[in-house]
Write a sequence for this structure.
């Protein structure tokens, strides 16, 4: 049996060049990275290149990648169709500051797939939720928004509330206390963000009742994917739709992770519920920084009438909208979701079988191509249950995977694996063989 300390020694000895990169990076980049989510102990591996389902680091080690950049790369790495299209597009100029054909086509494709009459482009998921929430406020004339405890919707003040609040401070189950993430978020901003309990419709009802005519929107990830993979209980999304209509509150699906990933048409297709607004990023960009938000023409008219602000130098960048067009038109087609779902189910079933075989008290959950292991006996149904896990076990699993050439999911226990269109049964077998070895070691 190898202990976690021994695995960390192995990690250090296998990743000496990454250590050199880290020492250099850490002098100029806080934590040696450009996004806090990329850091982990003792230091991250630094990547040299990627292709298909694989990545190679600066030490020359190969990894089967199931992070796929936090789920953004549903098209997989360096898809040949994408590489060719981007090469050609780059030669035609990378930024115009003027409208162009590719943004029109990309918007049409998004509109058709996500049932949106009108769309505007952004450069990231954070920008999409920020603009969508402002637009919802402008349209309804209300200031407050409601989110769920444990939900992540990007890096702006309105939604940096109760993302991973400490257990001791969360307040009551039905009326969670809104808590800012870190310092620098004004109290005035937090006051306008209400927090409800996931999967508890009475929690939502009570908050909407108490703040009648004040809540512009309910924003949610239809499957919460910043606490592993936490689907709604049966009927929850449908009940939210009814409540929002009752209170004149807009229902916003943050489909940054679920859009063009959970299903061809994202969560609206999966749950058969129509949202008032949809926020997109990750998969629609085909690997380039692109976000979008959309709604009915009536709602988007707030932008057309210059009542709600939306603009951006890089919005609808020709390269990113080319990538979007190629991804949606040629790669993330309906059949792709049949294949990735099948592999996603095989991964989760395989994990569950292996856990059972070794008598380990953990469980595996997936929704389509997204899945994870929870380090507790049963799948959690809200953030508070999710907190009740053996997170140390996750880090042991994480380092053991990396030492054996697998990136099992995005870094950290709150993430999940992604099966892209370029993953194969062989990749699934590889991950399961490594998981079997890991479980044998920890059992
Ligand atoms: C559900 C959700 N919304 C918004 C965001 C923010 O997206 P970005 O990192 O592109 O700003 C993320 C990022 O992971 C996300 O998972």
């Amino acid at each position: 049996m190898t202990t976690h300390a021994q695995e960390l020694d192995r990690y250090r000895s296998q990743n000496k060049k990454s250590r050199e990169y880290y020492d250099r990076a850490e002098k100029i980049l806080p934590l040696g990275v450009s996004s806090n989510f990329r850091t982990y102990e003792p230091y991250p591996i630094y990547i040299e290149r990627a292709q298909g389902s694989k990545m190679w680091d600066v030490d020359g080690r190969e990894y089967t990648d199931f992070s796929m950049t936090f789920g953004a790369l549903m098209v997989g790495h360096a898809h040949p169709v994408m590489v060719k299209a981007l090469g050609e597009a780059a030669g035609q100029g990378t930024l115009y500051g003027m409208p162009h054909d590719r943004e029109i086509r990309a918007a049409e494709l998004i509109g058709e797939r996500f049932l949106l009459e009108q769309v505007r482009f952004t450069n990231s998921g954070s920008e999409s939720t920020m603009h969508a929430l402002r637009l919802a406020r402008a349209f309804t004339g209300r200031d407050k928004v409601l989110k769920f405890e444990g939900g992540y919707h990007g890096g702006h003040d309105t939604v940096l509330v109760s993302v991973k609040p400490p257990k001791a401070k969360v307040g009551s189950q039905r009326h969670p206390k809104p808590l800012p993430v870190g310092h620098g978020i004004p109290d005035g901003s937090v006051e306008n963000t209400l927090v409800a309990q996931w999967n508890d419709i009475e929690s939502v009802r009570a908050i909407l009742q108490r703040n009648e005519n004040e809540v512009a929107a309910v924003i949610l990830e239809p499957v919460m994917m910043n606490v592993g993979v936490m689907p709604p209980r049966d009927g929850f999304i449908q009940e939210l739709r009814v409540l929002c209509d009752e209170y004149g509150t807009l229902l916003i699906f943050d489909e940054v992770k679920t859009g063009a990933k959970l299903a061809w048409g994202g969560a609206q297709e999966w749950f058969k519920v129509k949202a008032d607004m949809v926020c997109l990023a990750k998969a629609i960009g085909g690997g380039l920084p692109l976000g979008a938000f959309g709604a009915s023409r009536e709602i988007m008219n707030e932008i057309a009438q210059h009542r709600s602000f939306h603009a951006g130098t890089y919005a609808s960048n020709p390269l990113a909208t080319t990538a979007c067009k190629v991804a949606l038109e040629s790669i993330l087609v309906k059949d792709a979701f049949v294949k990735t779902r099948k592999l996603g189910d095989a991964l989760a079933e395989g994990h569950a079988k292996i856990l059972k075989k070794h008598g380990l008290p953990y469980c595996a959950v997936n929704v389509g191509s997204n899945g994870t292991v929870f380090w507790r006996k049963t799948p959690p149904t809200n953030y508070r249950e999710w907190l009740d896990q053996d997170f140390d076990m996750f880090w042991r699993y994480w380092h053991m995977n990396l030492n054996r050439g697998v990136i099992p999911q995005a870094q950290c226990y709150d993430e999940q694996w992604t099966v892209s269109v370029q993953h194969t049964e062989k990749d699934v077998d590889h991950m399961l063989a490594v998981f079997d070895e890991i479980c044998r070691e920890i059992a």
